[in-house]
Amino acid sequence: MKFSRLHTFTLALAAALFLALIPTAHAQTVPGTVTLTASPTSGKGSVPVTLTWSTTPAAVSCVGSGGSADGAQGWSGSLAASGTFVVPVALINSQTYTVTCTWTSTSAILTWTAPTEYTNGTPLTVASYNVYEGPASPPATMVANVLAGTTTYTATNLPAGTNYFAVTALDGTGVESALSNIASKATTQTESASATVTVTVIPAQPSNLTAQ
Amino acid sequence: MWRVALALAILCSACASTPSAPAQPAVTLSWVPVTTLTDGSALTDLSGYVISYGPTGATPLTETVAAPPATIDLAAGSYTFSVAAVSASHGLGVPATITYTVP
Question: Which ipTM did the prediction report?
């Protein structure tokens, strides 16, 4: 139920710069969790069902789905971050319902691994790293210069959508490596949870029962 | 001849006027046979109907019949009857209930 998006990449270097950089970046872990329960989870014949969902932290929005082709048993449409839904008709067949919730996060944590040598194999002492960010790949805007010894950067106030990140290494003379490969992270993330109600089919009710 | 005719007439009228023995109180339950399952598909292996009945609040008695109608001998009183189809593969069905006072 938790996101963990790991971006691992190997830097391609411009040979002319003689700087090697092998960063490993991964995006922030967002603790978005959604749960969905159906009550009851099973029954015979005709089963009235209530669905209950919740999100932690509260999602921006959720969408319900599932149920059969019979619209009255279906679940659809936008939902709040938590709530209950009573299926309009009692189920006569087993059904699975799913709630998909969306969170937004305007920050991302970028990490990478320090390079140790130039492209020609000679030892390298990194002086600093430039961090690039942008809404397209490759990212064009340098947003930070991080001193050697630190191999992480937290990007904040990200615009909605997918943001791209890359780093370069600089040596003591200011020679900059080529961009690392590109890490990306979407500001919108989704998680889903499902619940199944098992209905046992039994003979129908006798009709027109009379006594005399 | 006259006497015989008269005697027969007397006998006949006596016979007709003799009160019959009190009938055992009973109830006859009728219902439309069940042909489908709760999901609307056909019930193809009906094995009969289970009738459970009893005075309100008492442990019900059960009786199994192959098809409607069903006649049950009972003492006078108020009873609740429940009738459910039984399928060999799907088990006991949804019951229909009715309350009836046996005179």
Answer: 0.73
